Amino acid sequence: QVQPVESGGGWIQTGGSLRLSCTTSGRTFGTYVVGWYRQVSTKEREFLSAITSSGIVMAYGDSVKGRCTISRDNGKNTVYLQINNLKPEDTAVYYCAAREPMNMKYEYWGQGTQVTVSS
Fold it and tell me: Kind of pairing, strands 108-109 and 57-60?
């Protein structure tokens, strides 16, 4: 079982960039699909991006497409999410999740990291 742990959140000004990291305290990520989501308390969880175990980018959400890059380093057991040109509407709690490749549903979720973009 994997237990995702996010890091890298914080306060950042509009137009800045941020790189979030996701690692695991349990088994390694190596064979799992890993996705990033975010949520504002008043809204549904929003999909941002996902990457296969071999590092193939599966998709980007419309709200971050063109200014977001997902990547992974299996040697470091870490998945990254880089977001550029941050906007106040990017303020949210960002979650990392993992699933077995044959599963459609993410089974393992991190506790989230808060990102706040100030105008």
Answer: unpaired
